[in-house]
Design a protein that fits this description.
Layout lengths: L6 E7 L5 H16 L5 H24 L1 E5 L2 E6 L5 E6 L3 E7 L2 H6 L1 E8 L5 E9 L1 H12 L1
Antiparallel strand pairs: 1-2, 1-7, 2-3, 3-4, 5-6, 6-7
Helix pairs in contact: 1-2
């Protein structure tokens, strides 16, 4: 992205979209503590798995974003196995929203961006907060 470009809208994941993983981690921590009487290995295993789940959520929250500038859409998903989107608005075929019940209640969506590159590519940004405003701003810029 050029330093001269102004960022019009930014979208980041909503933490509640990963609440399921946090609940599983909390259950593992409790199970590890309760089952500690059967040996330290069970407790350590449960705590390690819980830590991996929580670290995974934090990494997703910190490394996933979608930006709309004056001329392009820029996005990034992931840390180790990452996927990057940087496409001019003129090459965006479609940008859409979808959500389930949790998204409707808590206001997060999946944003799908279809790029008209040499091979049509689809990027999905899951659990994004403020997605409706982002998509509206992008569609306004595309028209």
């Amino acid at each position: 992205m050029s330093q001269k470009e102004n960022v019009i809208a930014v979208c980041r994941p909503h933490w509640i979209g990963y609440f399921k993983n946090v609940l599983v981690a909390a259950a593992l921590i409790v199970a590890g503590i309760v089952l500690s009487q059967y040996g330290a290995i069970i407790t350590i295993a449960a705590l390690v798995v819980a830590a991996v789940l929580i670290i995974g959520v934090v990494i997703k929250l910190k490394t996933t974003y979608l930006e709309l500038t004056e001329t392009r859409i820029v996005g990034h998903i992931g840390f180790i196995n990452s996927k990057t989107l940087s496409t001019p608005l003129s090459r965006v075929q479609n940008i859409g929203l979808s959500n389930g019940l949790g998204g409707k209640i808590f206001g997060y969506h999946t944003i799908t961006v279809s790029d008209a590159g040499s091979s049509a590519t689809e990027y999905k940004f899951r659990n994004m907060a403020g997605a409706q405003a982002f998509v509206d701003a992008a569609q306004e810029r595309m028209n």
